[in-house]
Amino acid sequence: MKTLLFGFPQGGELIIILVVVLLLFGGKKIPELMSGIGKGVRGFKDGLKDIEKDIKEDASTELKA
After folding, report:
1. Residue 15: phi, psi to the nearest 5?
2. DSSP state at residue 3
3. Fewer CB in 10 Å around end: N or C, the chain?
4. In Å, how far are 14, 32, 50, 55 from 35, measured between CA atoms?
5. DSSP states of 11-64 as a string?
6. Could you read off the pLDDT of 19-65 as tens digits, one per residue?
7. Residue 28: how many CA atoms within 13 Å on its side-chain side?
8. How far, in whole angstroms, is CA 56 from its chain's centroid?
C-alpha cells in the first residue's frame, strides 16, 4: 500500500531539488550546509527534551503538593 505524503517531494521532484541545491551552493558548500542543518536539528531536539523535562518536573511537584 502506497501512502501519499502531500507536500513532500517524491522521486523526480527530489532529484530536481538536489540538482538545484548543487548548482546554487556548489560541491564544497554542501557539507557545510548539511552540518549547519544537523546542528539546528540537534538543537531543536535538545530544546524539546528540556521542555519535556520541565513539564514532567512541574507535574511531579503538583502531585506532591
Report:
1. -65, -45
2. P
3. N
4. 20, 5, 23, 30
5. HHHHHHHHHHHHHHHHHHHHHHHHHHHHHHHHHHHHHHHHHHHHHHHHHHHHHH
6. 888 888 888 888 888 899 999 999 999 999 999 999 988 888 877 75
7. 0
8. 24
